[in-house]
């Protein structure tokens, strides 16, 4: 059996560990985190090194980045790829992910999430609890689809975008890179990106 190393011993990392445990395909699940050695466990999973440990042991584990921040997660994931590491893809047993979907390495799919046929998801993507991505969507690298968010068919979501809890995106919408969609927002028109959008319909939040 395989061994899994999760970078980041946070709450998000614990959810990944719980999903991986339920997959029943890893003989060992462990964390690394900058707070080590002050922190040596994360619930019943060990924290075995600091945040550079994985670089020295890159061939010993499958690795996934358990950090919610999109920029940091994507940067570390790309570093793992550049160093020749093997990224894990974690799919909770209750998630429904079409076998006719392209999934980027290092992505995670939490309980009751759904990804339908014809989708393309980039590396280091999070599809969180109860979120859904309908047919033929394109989700770029480093995105986070938060709990209960729903994306209708054919939508395109730009790199490092964050769709907040309970947000909705109608079909065929294009959302630009580094967009932050607020909780409960409804996206009914294309968004340029590099901004925060809130409300129904979603509009740019002015500073």
From TrEMBL:
Gene3D superfamilies (UniProt xref): 3.40.50.20, Hexapeptide repeat proteins
Keywords from the named record: Repeat, Transferase
GO molecular function: transferase activity
Family the UniProt entry places it in: Belongs to the transferase hexapeptide repeat family.
Residues reported in the UniProt entry to bind substrate: 10-12, 68
Protein name: Acetyltransferase
Binding site for acetyl-CoA: 144, 165
Keyword field contains Repeat: yes
UniProt key word ATP-binding: no
Residue(s) at site: Increases basicity of active site His: 136
Matching InterPro entries: AcTrfase_PglD-like, Hexapep_transf_CS, PglD_N, Trans_hexapeptide_repeat, Trimer_LpxA-like_sf
Lineage per the UniProt record: Bacteria, Pseudomonadati, Pseudomonadota, Gammaproteobacteria, Alteromonadales
Pfam families: PglD_N
PglD N-terminal domain boundaries: 3-78
Active site (catalytic residues): 135
């Amino acid at each position: 059996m395989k061994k899994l190393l999760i970078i980041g011993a946070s709450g998000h990392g614990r959810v990944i560990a719980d999903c991986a445990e339920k997959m029943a395909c890893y003989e060992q699940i462990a964390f690394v985190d900058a707070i080590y050695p002050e922190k040596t466990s994360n619930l019943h999973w060990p924290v075995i090194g600091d945040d550079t440990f994985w670089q020295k042991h890159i061939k010993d584990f499958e690795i996934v980045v358990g950090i919610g921040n999109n920029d940091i997660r994507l940067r570390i994931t790309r570093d793992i790829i550049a160093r020749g590491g093997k990224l894990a893809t974690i799919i909770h047993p209750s998630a429904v992910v079409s076998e006719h979907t392209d999934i980027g390495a290092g992505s995670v799919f939490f309980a009751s999430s759904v990804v339908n046929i014809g989708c393309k998801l980039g590396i280091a993507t999070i599809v969180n609890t109860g979120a859904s991505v309908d047919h033929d969507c394109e989700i770029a690298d480093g995105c986070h689809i938060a709990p209960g968010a729903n994306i209708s068919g054919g939508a395109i979501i730009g790199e490092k975008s964050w769709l907040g809890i309970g947000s909705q995106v109608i079909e065929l919408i294009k959302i630009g890179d580094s967009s932050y969609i607020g909780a409960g927002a409804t996206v009914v028109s294309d968004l340029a990106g590099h901004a925060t959008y809130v409300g129904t319909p979603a509009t740019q939040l002015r500073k």
